[in-house]
Write a structure and sequence with these properties.
Distance between the termini: 44 Å
Strand content: 35-45%
CATH superfamily of the largest domain: Glucose Permease (Domain IIA)
Bound molecules: zinc ion
Radius of gyration: 19 Å
Oligomer: single chain
Order of helices and strands: EEEEEEEEEHEEEEEEEEEEEEH
Length: 269
């Protein structure tokens, strides 16, 4: 198979890279499976825990056979973040909480791993709520002095009751009051793209509902493991949690729409 070195293709753990593909592309496959293709680009997520070094995307075309494009994963130094959680049960859960935590984690993992039919996402992504970014994606979390999972979402600080809107059209794949994540909604945008919204005050959608662009799903709150009211927003592509801000900007750029955006690893914070 022909190998092409893409001179400028460098990606970082937790980000998504756009690999150009020809018009007659049939499939572009990374180590995480078939890539979401947007306007002549395969979007390839890079896991926060990815080893550094060379990777490749296998591209299958109708008329030109198959070939590989290489890219490099280089280091990105994410800062450490110390938090104090007053409710110690939410840092070191009781034995009786374990079944519930595992059940909820399993629901989230199943949704993240799903790959459903494509949905028209050409309207682009919108930031789900008004407010400033209070905690960016990727931070190394230390809770009450104990090193924990990386921050696999982006936090937006806002007052309780501020509306939360889906970042893009999709289907409500799951929702509930979860131990760590509080009131949570997971939206399936098709093609292995999923978004999750946590710590909500109120959920106003039902499981299975089809959401239009910008449809309200609930309000900002302080449920679950939090230090104050905020929205924790996770984006998952091909079952890899990625930086929502970087991904939204990249995606909107490819569609030429206004740039906007700016949690095992199912946990929110
Ligand atoms: Zn968070």
């Amino acid at each position: 198979m022909l190998e092409l070195l893409l001179a400028l293709a460098v990606g970082y753990p937790g980000t998504t890279i756009a690999v150009p593909v020809p018009d007659d592309v049939v499939e572009a496959r990374s180590e995480h499976g078939a890539a979401l293709i947007v306007n002549g680009h395969a979007l390839v997520p890079i896991d926060l825990a990815a080893k550094l070094g060379s990777r490749s995307v296998s591209i299958k075309t109708q008329g030109r056979g198959s070939y590989k494009v290489q890219y490099a994963v280089e280091d990105l130094d994410y800062p450490e973040n110390h938090l104090t959680i007053q409710n110690k049960r939410l840092v070191n859960p009781y034995a009786e909480d374990v079944d519930r935590i595992q059940r909820e984690s399993s629901i989230m993992r199943t949704v993240f791993a799903s790959r459903t039919d494509p949905i028209d996402l050409s309207s682009g992504f919108t930031r789900p709520t008004e407010g400033v970014t209070s905690s960016p994606f990727g931070l190394r979390r230390v809770l009450n002095g104990q090193p924990r999972n990386r921050h696999t979402g982006l936090d937006i600080a806002a007052n309780t009751g501020t509306p939360i809107k889906t970042m893009a059209p999709g289907r409500v794949a799951a929702s509930g009051a979860y131990f760590f994540n509080g009131n949570t909604v997971l939206v399936d945008h098709g093609s292995g793209l999923v978004s999750m919204y946590c710590h909500m005050n109120e959920i106003v959608v039902e499981d299975g509902a089809m959401l239009e662009a910008g449809e309200m799903i609930g309000t900002v709150g302080a449920t679950g493991r939090v230090t104050g009211p905020h929205l924790h927003w996770t984006v998952s592509l091909n079952n890899v949690r990625i930086d929502p801000a970087q991904f939204s900007a990249l995606f909107n750029d490819l569609y030429g729409v206004g740039s906007t955006a700016g949690g095992g690893d199912t946990d929110a914070h």
